[in-house]
């Protein structure tokens, strides 16, 4: 990315210390961090990417189990235990999704 503009800003000593602390936490330069704050894309945050990757993996595992239940239903082998398993998988999926949403909301 070609940078075309250079800007200077005034900060108090406390603001500068806070900026340095936050930049060190995320392992970025000050310029990268300021650009990140402007764009505010969740995918730019490593911890959010990691949470989303974990959620996608969990959704895929649950999806495989749901597909098995649907296959049993289509084969007329659907049972009450399948219904209970399906409900449990959907509950687990909702819990995982809610946790990621709550965690992202804290960032």
What does this 3D model show about the protein?
With 107 residues, the protein is an all-alpha fold. It has 2 domains: 13-40; 45-105. Helices cover 74% and strands 0% of the residues. The chain is built from 4 helices and no strands. It has helices at 13-26, 30-39, 46-74, 80-105. Helix 3 runs antiparallel to helix 4 (80-105). The chain is elongated, with a radius of gyration of 22 Å.
The gist of it:
Helix content is 74%, strand content 0%. It has 4 helices and no strands. It comes from Hominisplanchenecus murintestinalis.
Structural class by secondary-structure content: mainly alpha
Count of DSSP-assigned helices: 4
Question: How many β strands by DSSP?
Answer: 0
Q: β content, as a range? A: under 5%
The pLDDT mean sits at 82
Unreliable residue stretches: none
> What's the helix-strand series?
HHHH
Choose one word for the global shape: elongated
List keywords for this structure.
single chain; 107 residues; Plasmid mobilization relaxosome protein MobC; elongated; 4 helices; mainly alpha
């Amino acid at each position: 990315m070609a940078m075309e503009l250079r800007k200077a800003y005034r900060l108090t000593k406390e603001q500068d210390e806070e900026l340095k602390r936050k930049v060190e936490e995320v392992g970025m330069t000050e310029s990268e961090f300021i650009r990140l704050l402007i764009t505010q894309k969740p995918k730019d945050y490593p911890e959010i990417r990691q949470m989303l990757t974990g959620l996608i993996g969990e959704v895929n595992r649950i999806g495989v189990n749901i597909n098995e239940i649907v296959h049993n239903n289509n084969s007329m082998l659907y049972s009450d235990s399948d219904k209970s398993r399906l409900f449990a998988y959907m509950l687990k999926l909702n819990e995982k999704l809610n946790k990621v949403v709550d965690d992202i909301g804290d960032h």
